[in-house]
Amino acid sequence: MTLGSGGSSVVGESLDLPRNFRLLEELERGEKGIGDGTVSYGMDDGDDIYMRSWTGTIIGPHNTVHEGRIYQLKLFCDKDYPEKPPSVRFHSRVNMTCVNHETGVVEPKKFGLLVNWQREYTMEDILTQLKKEMAAPHNRKLVQPPEGTYF
């Protein structure tokens, strides 16, 4: 009986499976639309077997300067997702305290969900929390860039 390198490659492959199963679950949920339908997400490229590049959409919350606006975001789930959070960047221009004004990147140190990331969190959690952040007192009335402008 030999357990050499054959055994370790099986372990390596099995570590990849939970990530892909998790992302397949997230894909299914994201494509159905979440909650009230104001947040959604899906893969950029259906042929990407690593399921790394995603697009998210947030419809701005009522009674804020964001109301009626549609924001597009890019999420990138590297190979260590869900152990580590995805990188998140707004494609649509937005003025929020947790978003870099030059690049559109959601800065982890300024966005609690990313700085306190836990494996159980999902892309859905990120998008719904960003929507809540839009309605927070420090963001709800900030002057916004013209609608339809992009980073």
TrEMBL record:
Question: Which InterPro entries does the protein's record reference?
Answer: UBC, UBQ-conjugating_enzyme/RWD
Which Gene3D superfamilies does its entry note?
A: Ubiquitin Conjugating Enzyme
Biological processes per GO annotation: DNA damage tolerance; protein K63-linked ubiquitination
In its UniProt entry, the species of origin is given as: Manihot esculenta
UniProt xrefs under PROSITE patterns = UBC_2
Cellular component, GO annotation = nucleus; ubiquitin conjugating enzyme complex
Q: Which residues form a coiled coil?
A: none
- Pfam families in the record: UQ_con (PF00179)
- Higher taxonomy: Eukaryota, Viridiplantae, Streptophyta, Embryophyta, Tracheophyta
UBC core domain span? 18-151
Record-linked PANTHER family: UBIQUITIN-CONJUGATING ENZYME E2 (PTHR24068)
Superkingdom per UniProt:
Eukaryota
**What is the recorded name of this protein?**
UBC core domain-containing protein
Q: How does this polypeptide assemble, per the annotation? A: Heterodimer with UBC35 or UBC36.
Q: Which residues cross the membrane?
A: none
